[in-house]
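Contributing new records

If you add data, match the layout below exactly. Sequence lines come first and carry their own label; structure lines follow with theirs. Keep one chain per record. Anything else will be rejected by the validation script.
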Amino acid sequence: MKDTKTVAQQEELSKNLNEFYLNSSLIATKKKASEKRIMENQMLKATGGKSIVFSNRCR
């Protein structure tokens, strides 16, 4: 039978890893969204204020 302390440490470690992966994917998503906004703003400036509709399928 496994030592209960070891099991608790493994559970804590896996929980921390899951949180880390969630946070890093969230950060990546936010970064992608802000890059898209910056691109849209640059396009607006380039076209003199005429908006260009971006498809959500382009990722």
